[in-house]
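Chains adopt folds. We examine one example:
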Amino acid sequence: MKPYVPDALPLANLDLARLLPKIGPANAALARYDGLLQSVVNPAVMLSPLTQREAVLSSKIEGTQATVDEVLEFEAGMDFDPEKTSDIQEVVNYRETLTLAAHEVAHRPISLGLLRQMHAVLMDSVRGANKTPGEFRREQNWIGSAGCTIEQASFVPPSPLQLLDYLQAWETYLAASDVDVLLQCAVVHAQFELIHPFKDGNGRIGRLLIPLFLYQKQALASPMFYLSDYLESHRDSYYAHLQAISREGDWNGWIAFFLEAVTQQALSNAGRVRAMMTLYEEMKRRIAELTRSQHAIAVLDTLLDRPIFQSGDFVQRSGIPKQSASPFLRSLREAGILQVLRESRGRRSAVLAFRDLLNCAEGREIF
């Protein structure tokens, strides 16, 4: 099988008559979701469980097996076997990559340099760390069943000899404008996946690009729109549509799939955000009543930022004096707001969980 030759961007001969009925609803759904995001006082803190969930689901598409709870328990100092620890570290790296990239895109456009920076963080000290983190590949690779030859491959990415030319053309397209920002986002993601510039981690970097690109194009006020939930639950269709581009040049089918994903995910995400906003208001009232303290909001924000935590870490992150923080945590435990995952013993702090917030992020009923 010969290496794939990417189509020139912007794409010619798109069937806009077919795509327009999907472009409108996708943009409307995203705009409603963005309006909701803008009403959130501190989205990076209040909606951090959604970022955790994105990191878990995008990693799951690549075969990583770890839950949001396990990641947070690990970061709170609980122990796991080496294989699970490795999976959790991949999720943690994904979240750190997203945080880094969101900060960078607030100040400068997405670039090939930023891609390499993101890849270095994503692949740091995990499986694939031997696959040149932070560097574009310099050799031919291919995708297929384990141990297959290039002739048996299901997809052969572009030759490394032309790789930089294709990436530079992609980067130029990224900075330009197309007929619609969501259509352009669909093309940006798929073209990146087809160029496949890294030895490993291409799927995760490509999915990270979706919120970053929409943020850069000002379609989002903050880069907190995550598609991995939809893509993971439609994984076969996701891969089939990408493959149809390389085999049949079917960009229209891929873009239609992507627009439907945006529409459905925006509705789903909006439901989760509204549930978390409702929980925030309810907890603000309850915690104020329980603590009768000026620190009530600081308590709640610290719980939102990390809903599974060590009690000692809570004191440090909240900035609340220990003589006040310890009684607050005791009151929240007694009220059933916090659950104990591990009791304190000697110098080892208790590990506590704010389950209602995790349930909100997963879309489970809490009230």
